[in-house]
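Tutorial, part two.
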Amino acid sequence: MQPDLWRELAIAVCLVFIIEGVIPFLCPSRWRSLVGRLAEVDDRTMRMTGLISMLIGLGLLYLIN
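Running the prediction step on this input gives:
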């Protein structure tokens, strides 16, 4: 069972890289603009956004499994 876990984790990480690369590949100027705006966001807002994102991901994983 252990090797399957590592294989699935590796697949998940690869899928994250693919998904993260789609927008910069398709719209590099919009991506650059978004990153510039993100640099101006305060730490508290960024942390809350990250927390909400993690909770949504956790909830979706719970629903799937």
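The chain has one domain: 2-64. In part three we will examine how such features are distributed along the chain.
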